[in-house]
Structures are given as C-alpha cells and as structure tokens.
Amino acid sequence: MPLPMARVGGILSGIPDQWRVPLVRLALAWTAIFALTYRDWLAMFDQWWNISTYNHILLVPFIIGWLVYDRRAHLRDMTPEAWWPGFVALGSALFLWLLGSLAGVNTASQLGVVVALQASILTLLGPRVAAANLFPLLYMLFLVPFGDELVPTLQMITADLVIAFTHWSGIPAVIDGVFIDTPAGLFEVAEACSGVKFLIAMLALGTLVAYCCFKSWKRRVLFMAVAIALPIFANGVRAWGTIYIAQSQGIEFAEGFDHIFYGWVFFALVVAGLLAASWRFFDRDPEDMGVDLPNVGKQQWFAHIAALQIGVNKAFAAIAGMLILFAGWHAMASRIEADLPQSIALPQVNGWEQIEYAPTVEWSPKATGADHRLLGRYRNGDGNEVDVFIALYSAQEEGREASAYGEGALTMDTPWRWLAPGDAMENASSEYLLAYGHLKRLAQTSFHTADVTTGSATKLKLANMRDRLLLQARPTMMLILSAEESDTQNPVQSIATFRQSIGDEGEWMDRIAALR
C-alpha cells in the first residue's frame, strides 16, 4: 500500500495551489449532478456496454482525459475563477434534463446531464479554462448515445444503393421498400444492415482526427464530409456483396461470409483506407496541439466577459441550491398520473360492425406499460376491413412511452418486417409492414393527449413535457388504424373511409377513455 499512496501523493503535489480547491469543488459538484441524474448515467452505460452501436463510447472518457492531460503544461499557469453567467448554461442543462426525464425522451435527458457537467466547469473554473479546453468539452457530447432515429432513413438509403449496385452487376432484381427480390432469394435491408453503428462510430472518430491532424478548416470540413459519406456508401457495398455472393454460392454461404468478414472487420478496413488516403494531407502534429483559442484571452471583448466573476463559495452554494430545486421539481412532476376508468371498450361506428379479429398473419402492436389495450376488427358493407388498436396510458415515463423507439405497429420477433414509409398524413404517421415476403399491411399511428392529436412523436413529447412541468395530470392515447392489402382491398382507401366514419379522432379517443 505505501507505493500506491506515494504515487497518489505525488500526483496531488503536482497540482498547482490555485487549482486544488476549485478542482475539489468541481468534483463535489459533479458528484451531486451524478447523484441527481444517476438513472440517466446507468442507462447510458448500459447502452455503451450492451449495444454494439455505442460500444465505441466506452473510449470517449479516456480520449477526453488524454486531451485535457495533453494541455497540462498550459493549464498550470492559469487561475480558475468562478463565473456567474455559467449558471445560465447550468440551469438550461438541468431544465433540459428535467424535460427529457419527465417526457421519457432519453436523448434529451442524457444530453442535459452531459451539458450540466460542461456547464459546471464553465461556472466553477471560468471561461478562460473553458476556452483552453474547448474541444475536449465539446467532445463530451459524444457521451450521449444517439442514432436510432436515423435507422429508417439509412435503411432506405442502403436499399437504394444496393438495388443500384445489383442492377449494375447484371443481377435481375426487384425492390419493394427495404426488400430486394433476386433469383437467389428475397433479401431484407434490416435495421442491423442500416449501417448506423458504422456512421456513428465514424462520426466520433472523424471528429477526433479532423481536430488532431488538421489545421486548415477547409481540410477539416472535407475530411468530415468524406468520413460521413464513406460509411454509408461502404455499407451499401457490403450489403450488395452479400447479395452478389449469394447468387453463386447460396444464401447460407453468403450469410456466413457476412458474419465472419463484415461487421467491425469491414469497418476497420474502411477506416484504415480513409486514414491512408488522408495521411499525406495531415498538417498538424497531434503532439503539438496546445490549448484551444490561445489568443482569445487577449481580446478586449473576452476580457469583459471573463470579468463577470462571482465568489467561489457563492457559486458553489448557488449550484447546490439549483440542484435541490430541480430535484424537488422532478420528484413532484414524476408522481403526476391521470385518473382512468377501470375498463374501456371499442365503440360502435356508423356503417361498420365489429367482427372476429382473425388476421391472415398474427399482428399485435406493442404498447409497453399501457394501462389499457384494445385490439379489434371492423367491417363495412363494402367488405372493407380495418383493424383498430388503442392503448391508454395514465402517464408517460420510462418503461411506458407511447412514442418510444420500438413501440407501436411493428413488433420485433414476429413475422412482420418494416417495409417502407406510407404517404404523409396530417395527424398520423404511416408505414407499410411485410410478412413472409408477400403480405402487406398499412399501419397509421396517431397520438392524443388533451388538445393535441398528432402522428409526430416529437409533438407528443412536447405536450407531455408541458403537462408534467405544469403538474397537470392528463392521459395519453395511441391509436393505430391498420388494414391488410389484398386483391379486393386497398388499405389506404379502407382506412380513409373508417376515419370519415369516426369523425374527429381526438374526440373519438376521448370518448373511449371516458373523458367526454
């Protein structure tokens, strides 16, 4: 034990006197922020560790530490000073965390907790220290897991690339959404094939390389453009390669080759190729980075800003008070739940009758944590059939979010696969699903709470945020109208006819929830 303690003592003795107390206060502030937002940090770490898309984030804290350590000689001569405008940034970050946490928007709440750490540095150490560490501070944003929202778009881009390459290589193929039919079989550009993990990892790596290896902003921008476009293009080549090999070697061989060669091995080759092509254009030695914005302290405008100081004890007390305020606000708002009836039922609809729910392929939307769920089928005199799914929630929070990723019409581990987006609608989102390569189903999803009826997850979350912040208890409903495509039924027309019959959707849902 003496040797480790001696090393610790050596490290502490190497910290300049003017840094010791501010660093202790910063450590205490960070500890308090972690204590307030620990659920978000646990959720983030779970994603970093267990989801391959975010495994690279495990390296980000070490990269940030290295970037700051590399500045140690320059930072030694600086004197940290508490800065009162930092409270604006800290309060905004905590408010963003509160909004995201109450509405179940993980990206918003997690972004808020990371920005809160950044803002506490600005508040307790001052703008000169923040300016010297500008890039490491900004790079902390890569701690936030993001990218799931890009999956549908990347699926469609990859599918378009694959069909273009497939036709170019002389293989006859037909595309329908994200499904590509070839002589060797039917291929799906699934979520795992979207390339989102490569794109997100390349974005983090490319940003680091652009900063460390280039001085010219033109070269940085060009490098980042290539770093973003290359993984998307390469993923299209990867998916096409699987189809191309399958034509001569069979699907099983192609899938085995894909699992062995592609993935991170393929990504590593793409990264190596990008770095090799860019090497000759590097104009900055990573070991000679220095501090960011070295001359900003000489600017008169910056001197005026830096002069807005506050006593360290006052700053620390104000941070503690702010954390207590947001902790209390969060505790009160998170307990808000609307009163719901003990049971609900699908109502009668003019011109339609309820019939036995007997889909060709079993379809049951996902509504985790909903207090009530209804699923039934209606038929009108023309023989059109529409499936109606309704989920009613007393509150929206983690584990029961109507608009969360993975909730709604498409349920994993079923024969149904996402095919393509449907036509844009005013108050509903629309998507086509496919089962067994031939059965199509159109699903249109609407959300409703209070006076808001929308197909936008963002608008719903904003409405939920508003209600929680104002401590108003209002239920949320999810309505999915769906119809199978057949020789005798156009699902778009069938659902449109049903919508006309029920009238105002918001009022119709409120009646089901016994709110009218």
From TrEMBL:
E.C. designation(s): 3.4.22.-
Gene Ontology biological process terms, A to Z: proteolysis
Any GO CC annotation of this UniProt entry: plasma membrane
UniProt-listed InterPro entries: EpsH-like, Exo/Archaeosortase_dom, Exosortase, Exosortase-1, Methanolan_biosynth_EpsI
Keyword Cell membrane: yes
Subcellular location: Cell membrane
Residue stretches making up the Methanolan biosynthesis EpsI domain: 318-502
TM stretches of this protein: 21-39, 51-69, 81-99, 119-144, 156-175, 195-214, 221-241, 261-282, 302-329
Pfam families, sorted: DUF3485, Exosortase_EpsH
A single MF term (Gene Ontology): peptidase activity
Membrane topology recorded in Swiss-Prot or TrEMBL: Multi-pass membrane protein
Record keywords, A-Z: Cell membrane, Hydrolase, Membrane, Protease, Transmembrane, Transmembrane helix
Principal place of residence: membrane
Keyword Nucleus part of the UniProt annotation: no
Name by which UniProt lists this protein: Exosortase A
Source species: Pontixanthobacter aquaemixtae
Gene this chain is encoded by: xrtA
